[in-house]
Amino acid sequence: MHSDFRKYLRYANKYLALAEDAIQRHEDIEWLLIPAIILAWSAIESFVNNRCGDLNTLPHDMFELHERAFLLEKRLRFVDSGANIGKFVLEGQEYQALENKIFFLLSKLGSKNATKLKGETLWGRFQALKEVRDRLVHPRRDRQQDLIPEDVRNHIETAKELIQEISQRIWKKKIDFS
Description:
This protein is mainly α. The protein has helices spanning 5-24, 30-56, 65-72, 98-109, 115-118, 121-137, 149-171, and strands spanning 75-78, 88-91.
């Protein structure tokens, strides 16, 4: 499956629409709302990961080694023996939090005041989406997550708005979601 953020958002909306139809028939809807949330989150992740991947195609000298390690999600290690002694090398996987990737993109390519986003209402809504997603993906008996269509719709909108915000801060361009 091609990781196109627009598809993920479209699928999230389809699951939400199915849930709204099912609610009219008094059927269980949770099984439809869970993937809608995960797809909304995946849309943000797809958009951000692909932007990071785009940066990685630029000439290597545009980034410091630690920035390349971040973009590639590789570990940076100092070599203390062998042929590469005294050098830094990239190795293994070192996954980065989505929030960190967003701030990297914004501070490297967009608004120099990337921290301003953190204080905005949109960021608070993103954090709420993250909390719901985390509860669904990492379930525990003591942390239940109740879902209702209105909240899911708001989370899908948050995903769209955050993608739009990142795009506008970096390229000063509006995203077409169709």
